[in-house]
User: Fold these one by one.
Assistant:
Number 1:
Amino acid sequence: MDPLRQSPSPCSSRPSSPKTPPCEIHGYVGIEDVLDQLKIKAMKMGFEFNIMVVGQSGLGKSTMVSTLFKSKVWKCTPPGLGMPIPQTLQLKSVTHVVEEKGVKLKLTVTDTPGFGDQINNDKCWDPILGYINEQYERYLQEEILITRQRHIPDTRVHCCVYFVPPTGHCLRPLDIELLQRLCRTVNVVPVIARADSLTLEEREAFRRRIQHNLRTHCIEVYPQKCFDEDINDRILNSKIRDRIPFAVVGSDQEYLVNGRCVLGRKTKWGIIEVENMAHCEFLLLRDLLIRSHLQDLKDITHNVHYENYRVCRLNESHVLPRGPCWVNLAPTPPGPPVAPGPSKVCRQAREDSDDEEDDY
Ligand SMILES: Nc1nc2c(ncn2[C@@H]2O[C@H](COP(=O)(O)OP(=O)(O)O)[C@@H](O)[C@H]2O)c(=O)[nH]1
Ligand SMILES: [Mg+2]
């Protein structure tokens, strides 16, 4: 970024008009410094990221929340996470601000009580979908205010980690029902829970069967193929799609292995290390959520899922024909609006219009 760096100016080849002085721009203008400006702004603002864990009771959801917070990237224990994990009885969010190299991340993980534990599981997904839509509604109500906050607090769920029981067979009808609904509302990353109960061959066969089930039931989990923006996205995301659902193991206990302190599960025959790729794929999940796809998960949430919700709500309230300045939303409807599935059109339309709205 040397300001003195010279580059040939396209102006120099043009004939100069007699009135204007000949173009003197020969050198480097510094457009790439915009990236630095964005970085400084983003670092000041910090990032908000919200994850939700969903699945039947006993699959290790609450343990995974602890694992995420205690694993190497964060190494912190938010209040309440240090004690033994009780059974989750209601939706509960844990937030912690994590700082690494000056970058602040406000990470919220929402734990849900096991669903499908009853004899009659009719509508057992309502509280989960209700919570997700409630966060969209909150955001919408803030967004439509004439005098609105410069930065709207974002509690929308950016990613839902869905725990599949390690049966080794295939997805259960209940999993399919819920996944179909969830994928229309939120980004979903399925994982094989308690993967230490399966052999490596069983994990692989189970993964393939789940992938087949997802395809035959048209369940589009994250990263959705239709949102790959270029060949690089397609190459990276294809590799991820091939490994999803990740076979994960969770633990909030630390053990000493070869002089290193590791998060793991102690068994009679050894320690299963959570952050060891030879033992399980927790690292793939964490890298997808934080390292490689955090911003994309947020973008798809905003440009596709939230946009679908917003359009449905505005249509319901019959406000669209009155023009973009007129908003008069009815109070929250009792049920979630029936949003269409992910739509590339929506995402692009939103991207064209929201540049000045997004704070980061
Ligand atoms: N074998 C095994 N047990 C696990 C794993 N994760 C959690 N557990 C155990 O499963 C039990 C239920 O875990 P919990 O996190 O409360 O499950 P939740 O009901 O889904 O929140 C606890 O005894 C955990 O120690 C795992 O990956 N493998
Ligand atoms: Mg729990």
Number 2:
Amino acid sequence: MSKLVSVGSFCPNEECVEYGETDRGNIIRYGKTGEGRQRFQCKTCKRTFNERKGTLFYNRKTEEKDILECLALLAEGVRISSIHRAKGIKEDTILSFLREAAIHAEQIEAILMDDYHISRAEIDGLWTYVGRKEAEKTE
Ligand SMILES: [Zn+2]
């Protein structure tokens, strides 16, 4: 499985001079969060962050794997109501994954194609689907 971002190898603070730079040696382990997630600190800007900060799905309760599976199923044309029944995730939540995914489209496309064998056409369908759902909301 390819990882979206190797957390702990770069600083996710956009104001930091080392922002996004990997393997600079500026990131150190900094204990654990209350939920048991590894916490890191950037020695350059002194900010701390946890495993999920800087990844696509920061602050989401759902596992990244489940989110990607939802997106893969949607891309394959599975109805959102069926995914909701199969996975027990609210339809609104699934739509929010999709919206967030659209922001990080390039990363998501690479993962869906490499790890989930989703085709280019199916991915295009996915983004069309996001657009359509957004249009429905504003009507
Ligand atoms: Zn930093």
